[in-house]
Amino acid sequence: MHIYIDGPDKPCTVRTRVRVPLRLSTGLMVDSWVSTFHGLRDGAEHLAVELGPADTRTPLVRVHSECLTGDVFGSARCDCGPQLDEALVSLHAAGGVLVYLRQEGRGIGLYSKIDAYRLQDGGLDTYEANEALGLSDDLRDYTAAAQMLRALGRTAVDLLTNNPDKARQLAAHGITVHRTLPTGVHVNQHNRAYLTAKAEKTLHTIELHDLTEKEKIA
User: Fold this and answer.
1) Is 106 annotated as catalytic?
2) Given this model, what pLDDT does residue 184 score?
């Protein structure tokens, strides 16, 4: 559970900043700088990961919500892992920041997300499953992301996302989004219904295509 402190736009400060070498999905080993923060509104342990050229005037930013099953275990039920891999490669090339938010399952938590998977196996889509559990479609709040970006001096950004709500919320909290750049479409036979629901119900900019033979067996 997140504990909200003070007002939504209270400044936060960098708590710790440390060099962390990362191995990208391309196999390239690169340097990153990982920051933690004091004063985040929701009290959660979010991270910012800076990669690539430090002198980028308008940095590329990816606001990524934690997905243990996808980011760590490579679950094919979502596109989170491939999106994270793609983002790190793009951020290293362009110069920018990964804002990694501890908002598992669109904010419902890990156990509830697994419960929602079971309901999806019974025919509900990802949003209907949340509702059947008595939860919101999407509980994510990007106030902390805006706080973190301001603390890093990144108040004007190019945003890497398919989710229009991220740009709206960042702008509402004082972050200028110059451009919104879509991520790739990482579709397979296991996540197609999930991606379709996101495109149709929350207007994610996802153009689904016919599955290739490789995607059918993924």
Assistant:
1) no
2) 84
Looking up tokens 């994270």 gives 84
Rounded to whole angstroms, how far apart are CA atoms 142 and 125?
A: 24
pLDDT in tens, 74-132: 999 999 999 999 999 999 999 999 999 999 998 999 999 999 999 999 999 988 999 99
Q: Residues 122, 128, 131, 132: what is their CA dihedral angle, to the nearest 10 degrees? A: -20
Query: What is the β-pairing status of strands 156-160 and 29-38?
Result: unpaired
Asked if residue 215 has pLDDT above 60, the reply is no
The mean of the pLDDT values for the chain is 88
Q: Is 140 a catalytic residue?
A: yes
User: What six digits make up the tokens of 39?
Assistant: 């004063």
Closest alpha carbon to 155 in 179, 168, 171? 171
Q: Where are the beta strands (DSSP E) in the chain?
A: 13-23, 29-38, 47-51, 60-65, 96-101, 156-160, 176-181
4 has a pLDDT exceeding 60: no
Specify the DSSP element, H or E, that contains 214. helix 213-216
Domains of the chain with bracketed CATH: 13-103+140-216 (3.40.50.10990)
Task: Please tell me the distance from the alpha carbon of residue 14 to that of residue 147, in angstroms, as a whole number.
Answer: 10
Catalytic residue among 140, 150, 154, 192: 140
Catalytic entry in 138, 154, 168, 192: 138
What's the whole-model pTM score? 0.87
User: What sections of 42-152 are H helices per DSSP?
Assistant: 80-94, 110-121, 126-132, 143-151
